Amino acid sequence: FQAVPAVAAPPDHAEAVVVTGELELFYLDDFDNNRYELQYFIEDKKNNRRYRLEFDGTPPGHLRSGMVITAKGKAKGRELFLAADGITQSTSQPTQQSLPAVTGDQKTLVMLGNFTDTDISCSAAQVNDIMFSDPYGEHVDGVYREMSHEAVSVSGEVKGPYNINFASTGSCDTAGWANALETAAVNQGIDVSAYPRKVYVLPSQNKCSFAGLGSVGSTPSRAWILRCDRGGIYAHELGHNLGMRHASTPTNAYGDSSDVMGSSSLLRKVNAPHQDQMGWVPDYQIVEVTQSGTYDISTLGLDPAQATAPQMLKIAKPDSNDFYYLSFRQPIGFDANISTSYHGRISIHTYAGNDSSVETFLLGTLQDGENFIDSNNGLEFTQLSHNSNYATVQIQMDSAPPSPTCTAAVPTVSISPSSQYADAGISAGYTVTITNRDDGNCDNSSFNLASSVPSGWSGSLSPSSINLAPGDSGSATLTVTSSATAAAAPYTVEVDVSDSSESLHAVSA
After folding, report:
1. What is the predicted pLDDT for the residue at 95?
2. What's residue 356's pLDDT?
3. Around 52, how many Cα atoms within 13 Å sit in the side-chain half-sphere?
4. pLDDT band at 221 (very low <50, low <70, confident <90, very high)
C-alpha cells in the first residue's frame, strides 16, 4: 500500500513562526487506489489561524488528537513546515491504555451538500437509511450497536442537501465545505453545537483524491464522505473519529477485510484487537496466555454473557513488544458480510495493545489442522477443531523450531580402474570411492562394504566401513587375488554397499 510521503523542505520565502495550539489528526482514505494519508493540523489559539503541519521525514509516533503542542517552523499560506526540533509537547491527553471504554450514544448530524455545478447522487432519505434506519437493519447504528454489544449507538439527523457556493472543479476545500454546510444548517434553525459528531456528504465529482476523510480520536469530530452510497465508508470514518486506525495486512493498509477499518465496501464489524482497544469485550472474556496448553475460543460475535469460553486470546510477542490476538469468527449478524474465508477459522492478528497510534495487522487464518509458527519467539498455534460456537486451539510456547527433514538418497559408488589384466594367482588392487548424496539435513551415515568375487578367488576391503557426512566422499582399497588355476577369461568383481539404518543406501558396483 502507499502512504503519502512527508514534505521534505519548506518553500522559498516562507515566514518563521511559532504556533501553540491543539493538535488534530485526520485520515484521508482513497480506498479505490489503496492509498491513504495521515494529516496533522494545529490551530493557533491567538489568532484562530489553522495550519497543516508538514514534517521533514516521518512524523513522531506519539502525536494524538487533543494534544496541546508548540510548533516551530516556516509558514507558507496555511502550511507550516517544521524544523527538525519543531514540536514541543505542552500538555497531552492520557495514553490510550488509561482511557475509558468507548460507550454511549454518538449523536451525529449529517449534512448533505450540492456544488454549484453538480448535485449529490443520494437523497437525504437514502443517507438516513445508511446511517440510522435501513428497514433490514443494515445501517451504521446497527453495526456499532452489535459489535459494541449495545455499549455504543449512533443517533442523529440527516439535513439537506444544501446548495453551497463551491464548484466541483474548484480546490479540495474540505474546511470551506464544512463551514458552508454548518452555516446553512444554522440558518435552517439547527443547533449544530448539539451534535459532537458531524458528517459532511458531498458529490463524488470533485477535485479530491479520496472517498472519505475523518478526524482521529477527537470529540467533537468531523468526517467527510464523497461516496454517498457506500455504508462502509460512513462506518470507517466514524471508526477513525472514535480512535481506531486501519485494519491492515503487512502489505495492504486496507487488507483485513474482516474489519470495517480495512475494506470499506460493506458494513462489517471490527476485529478482535480493535474491539479490545474500544473496550467492547469485557476483561473476563480476554485471556492473556502465558503457558502452553489447549484453549477454547468462543465466537467473537456472540454476546459475552452467552460465550462459554474467552472470546480472544492474547500472547505476548517478545521481539516487538506487541501481542498476538487469536479470535474466532462465524457468520453471526454483521459477520455474515465478511468473506467465508474467515468463518470457522482462527484469525491471527498482531497489535501493539490498546494503542491508538498504530494499525492492527492480520497475519492469516487457520482452519482445522493448520498451524502458525513464530520461530523467532518459539511460538506455535494450531487449530485443532471447531463447531458453530467455539474453536479449540493448541498453543505451544518456548517451542524449538521444527526439526528439518532429512532426505536420503542412493550413494554413488565407483571402482577404479574399471578392468585389469593379471596372471592367474596374482593380486590386483582397486580403489573404491563412495559419495554420500543425502541432503544437508541428514546425519552422518556409516556405509558397510563387502566384496563378491568368483569362486576360489579372494577379495578384501580396507577399510570395510566408511563414515561419511552428507555430500562427502571416501575411499577404500579392494585387493583381489585370482585362483592359481583360473583359466584365461574375463571375470566380474563386485562391491556391495549397505547401511543398516537406511535402505536407500544399498547399492552395488
Report:
1. 42
2. 55
3. 15
4. very high
Give the Cα separation of 503 and 178 in Å (integer).
Answer: 79
Number of CB atoms found within 10 A of residue 391's CB:
26
Quote the Cα angle for 42-45-47, to 5°.
105
- The three cell numbers of residue 466 are 566408511
**Bridge partners of 477?**
431, 462
Peptide bond just before 463 cis, omega within 30 deg: yes
Cβ burial, residue 107 (10 Å; 0-12/13-18/19+): middle
Taking the C-alpha atoms of residue 1 and residue 363, their distance in angstroms, rounded to an integer, is 16
Check pLDDT > 80 for residue 334: yes
The confidence score (pLDDT) of residue 264 equals 76
Cell of 454: 568368483
Contacts for 281 with CB less than 8 Å, ≥ 6 apart: 272, 275, 300, 304, 311, 312
Return d(Cα 236, Cα 208) in angstroms, integer. 18
Closest CA relative to residue 18, chosen from 85, 66, 65, 92: 85
